[in-house]
Amino acid sequence: MRPLTIDELKKLFEKLSKYIGKNVEHLLKNPSEAHAFRLQKDRVYYVSESLIKASQSLPSETILSLGTCFGKFTKSKNFKLHITALDVINKYALYKVWVKPSSEMQFLYGNNVPKSGLGRMTDEVPQYGGVVVLSMNDVPLGFGVAAQSTAQCKELEPTGNVVLHQGDVGEYLRTEDDIY
Amino acid sequence: MTLKATQIAPNTFNASKDNEVLEDARYDLYNLAAFNDFAQRSDDIGDSSTSDTTADGMNAALETFLLNKATEGTSQLIGALWTLETKASDVGPLALLPSSRGDAEVSVSNNAPTLLPRAKPAPKPKEPTKWELFRKEKGIETRKRGRKEWDEATGEWKVRYGMGSAANANGEWPIMEAVQGNEYADPWQAKRDERKEKVEKNQVQKTRNMERQGLVQKGSAKKLEKQFEENRKKIKLTAPPLPAGLPVDMKSTKGSEVKNRAARGLESTKKALAATRLSTASMGKFDQVRKGEDKVRKKRSGEEIRDRRKELQSANQGGAKGEADRGLKVLNSVLLGSEKKEKMRRTGKMHKGETGHDFDYDDGLGGGSFRKKKGRAGAGKLKKVTKKNIK
């Protein structure tokens, strides 16, 4: 378990800023307690200082996971965001998309959101911007990438994709081994 | 000496012939033409019996008149052709037309071949080439040489140039000397390259001569030269580099610049050392490491060898606060980077090569040196540069 190098931090922030933008500094300078990012076996964890101090007495091979797992670095050193980061992202999200109940299940199975399933969308979403997907009751379902900007989405045909699936809550059941 | 009318135009004024009074025609038998230069009288057009004065009627009368005149002219021409000298052939007698420009005698009087003006301007006299000028100056005479030449080495008559010539014989004898600059270069390839260069040089000289004569646009010789240069560079790029570890002659560094001193071999020596350290049965893992040397680390493809101790040291500095500050710095650079990109995208500056979709952008790096094929084949098929496809 070690802190991230500058290159790794860059990649992490690039990914996060797509969803949260400038609010990443809230992550770094947490108002309640100081948190930090730690790397354990290619996985990035968002851990509080007290927890870090506590874990330092444990042998690192025995630690499976700690704090919140944000994602992992792939073999080609790209950062992949995991669904376990949803709560944090939802708190600071810039762009949100509300999905109708009819295509909720589709999204939870891992499919993209078509225009027919689109309920509401924040204005001025850039194309390929990170988006949090919520149900009409404001329950976070997952996150994705906007296939088109908001203006383009209005002119899309009903079968066109609005949100490209990146992570959904259903993964807790489907790939529970892999997320933590 | 008075000229009689009957002498000038015998047919017209010789009423002693049959009732037909044909106007004398002027013949140009070389061009197979007969010309009637006489002015026509309007009284002759149209019969006195016809009283049809309408436009159509007058036109019809005119048509018949002209047809008659043409018939007369044609019969006169054929009559004139019969007066020419004939030659027997299997299709019958052939009339020998007078040769051009009126040099031979024409059998019918009043004839001269009509001189037609030039359709296109006369060609400029050819400008002598550089060699021609030199030749004239020095008074060198050219001798016509035979096609074959006696080759002493093989003891047979060989063609002067091209396939089967003595100079073209590649691979028949072993080449004892190495290539001048590079010991490890292929001497046969070097010979081929030399010959190619000569051919290219000759082509450039030819185009230069043609330029001087105005047959080809000015500046095409230079373009040709440049194209050949580019082709040569392409081949150089794809040539496999010397593997590290091979002994290379060290260049002299007396009075040389800093960059040349690098050729002294520090880098290549290091590389050679690293390569040799791996060349044991266990890839250098259990070799005794000298003081000051680092352990042998086999580099996985795509991975950089990191100094993890140093990284950890710098990462652990300053405690939690220090970490947060460092994180903020990185975040700022990331946000700024993306903001700059956004701004450029908005103002339209992005499309000049920044995005991957701008295929025409030239970033000055000269294109990657990735070639799909190895060796000289990687340069691709070098199209033969001819006069027509000089770009």
Task: Give an overview in words.
Chain A: It is found in: Nucleus, Nucleolus. Chain A: Interacts with pre-ribosome complex. The complex is a heterodimer of chains A (180) and B (391). Chain A is of the alpha+beta class. Chain A has eight helices and eleven strands. Chain A has a six-stranded mixed sheet with strand order 7-11-10-9-6-8. A five-stranded antiparallel sheet of chain A has the order 1-2-3-4-5. The radius of gyration of chain A is 17 Å and the shape is elongated. Chain B is mostly helical and 391 residues long. Classes of the chains: A alpha+beta (180), B mainly alpha (391). The interface between A and B is medium-sized, with 21 and 19 residues.
**Going across the major beta sheet of chain B, what is the strand order?**
1-2
**Strand/helix succession of chain A:** EHHEEHEEHEHEEEEHEHH
Tally of helical runs of chain B: 10
- Biggest sheet descriptor of chain A: 6 strands, mixed
Distance between the termini of chain A: 15 Å
> Number of helical segments of chain A?
8
Question: What characterizes the major β-sheet of chain B?
Answer: 2 strands, antiparallel
What structural class results from the helix and strand content of chain B? mainly alpha
Beta-strand segment tally of chain A: 11
Residues in β-strands, percent of chain B: 5-15%
Helix content of chain B: 25-40%
Number of strands of chain B: 6
Low-confidence stretches of chain B: 103-109
Could you tell me how far the N terminus lies from the C terminus of chain B, measured between alpha carbons in angstroms?
A: 72 Å
State Rg of chain B: 45 Å
What sort of overall outline of chain A do the alpha carbons produce when their principal axes are compared?
A: elongated
Q: Please, how many domains of chain A?
A: 2
Multimeric state: heterodimer
Protein name (chain A): 60S ribosome subunit biogenesis protein NIP7 homolog
Main location (chain A): nucleus
Keywords (chain A): Nucleus, Ribosome biogenesis, RNA-binding
InterPro entries (chain A): NIP7_N, Nip7_N_euk, PUA, PUA-like_sf, PUA_sf, Ribosomal_synth_fac_NIP7, UPF0113_PUA
